[in-house]
TrEMBL record:
Keywords: Oxidoreductase. It comes from Chromobacterium alticapitis. This is Oxidoreductase. The keyword Oxidoreductase applies. Pfam families: adh_short. Belongs to the short-chain dehydrogenases/reductases (SDR) family. Gene3D superfamilies: NAD(P)-binding Rossmann-like Domain. PROSITE patterns: ADH_SHORT. Residues 4-187 form the Ketoreductase domain. GO terms for molecular function: oxidoreductase activity, acting on the CH-OH group of donors, NAD or NADP as acceptor. The keyword Oxidoreductase applies.
Length: 240
């Protein structure tokens, strides 16, 4: 392979799928991970290994990575994109929804980092790209647990960057505002979903998944000596 392996979690739709298409177009082999492997395969990208993996299962992630690296060579980057957004008022929300967000958004992110980091440190290069949110920088109504997980992503990313910067590994945080993806569909409170949709309309539209994928590709494409630590992007009409 003339270009190195890129790993993308949550690659079956939205930002993950858009990112996979952009990296494939640039000539990178890919390891795509998601629970819906049929959707990964439907992307029909060249030099791509698709595996059904829940990011909360660290052993499964490591196994898939070993298989991909045996085929395509060492992973030069991971895009930790898998995430769930379950909005709800704290007094009424099912605690199982908090746990699901913590498991996927925090533990899943840590599993992704852990899977690739040892090899990157040994090679003295690599890029870890963590998908957070503007909700990891400020709060929003009905976002208490979700904001908590995304604030955690920001803290984990910056602390990790400080830890590995001297060993040639970059850590990048991507913090989008509202994006047109399946993410809102995970929320079970219909009134909150309706309000969110109205908010998106009031701002005149939101980001497309391709917009975020382009930001990811831009940050990765910089020379290894350049680390764009964080990109915050949102639709121009998004005030919050």
């Amino acid at each position: 392979m003339t270009k190195p392996l890129i790993v993308i979690t949550g690659a079956s739709s939205g930002i993950g799928a858009a990112t996979a298409k952009q990296f494939a177009a640039a000539g990178h082999p890919l390891l795509l991970l998601a629970r819906r492997v049929d959707k990964l395969e439907a992307l029909d990208l060249p030099d791509t290994l698709c595996r059904k993996v829940d990011v909360t299962d660290g052993a499964a992630m490591r196994q898939a990575l070993a298989e991909a690296e045996a085929k395509f060579g060492p992973a030069d980057a991971i895009v930790n994109n898998a995430g769930v957004m379950l909005l709800g008022a704290m007094a009424n929300q099912d605690p199982e929804e908090w746990q699901r967000m913590l498991d996927v958004n925090v533990k899943g992110l840590l599993n992704g980092i852990h899977a690739v980091l040892g090899g990157m440190l040994a090679r003295g290069r690599g890029t870890i790209i963590n998908i957070s949110s503007i909700a990891g920088r400020k709060t929003f109504p009905s976002h208490v647990a979700y904001c908590g997980t995304k604030f955690a992503v920001h803290a984990i990313s910056e602390n990790l960057r400080e830890e590995v910067a001297g060993q040639g590994v970059r850590v990048i945080t991507i913090a989008p505002g509202a994006v047109e993806t399946e993410l809102l569909g995970h929320t079970t409170d219909e009134a909150i979903k309706a309000g969110y949709q109205e908010w998106k309309q009031q701002m005149g539209g939101v980001l497309a998944a391709d917009d975020v994928a382009s930001a990811i590709a831009y940050a990765y494409s910089q020379p290894q000596r350049v680390c764009i630590r964080e990109i915050v992007l949102a639709a121009t009409g998004q005030q919050a």
